Amino acid sequence: DMEERGHSLESIKASIEARKLDFDAYVDPQKQYADVVIEVLPTQLIPDDNERKVLRVRLVMKEGVKYFNPVYL
């Protein structure tokens, strides 16, 4: 996606860091109330993945939510 949009890794990291205070204040506290949380992170399986095209995904679901069936990835 970086290449497609013409952004460098450094500019993306700077953009994320610039919004971190808002994330910490408004988004992160809501995780405790969410029925589903999806985390997308760089993989640790490929040590030389400099392009970061392989991602690690974690799905966290709250138990006992009506109409939700357990999901296993």
UniProtKB/TrEMBL annotation:
Record domain Phosphoribulokinase/uridine kinase: where: 1-46
Keyword Kinase tagged: yes
Signal peptide: none
Protein name: Phosphoribulokinase-like protein 2
InterPro entries, sorted: P-loop_NTPase, PRK/URK
GO MF term list: ATP binding; kinase activity
Source organism (scientific name): Elaeis oleifera
Assigned keywords, A-Z: Kinase, Transferase
Keyword Isomerase in record: no
Transmembrane segments: none
Superkingdom classification of source: Eukaryota
Pfam families documented for this protein: PRK
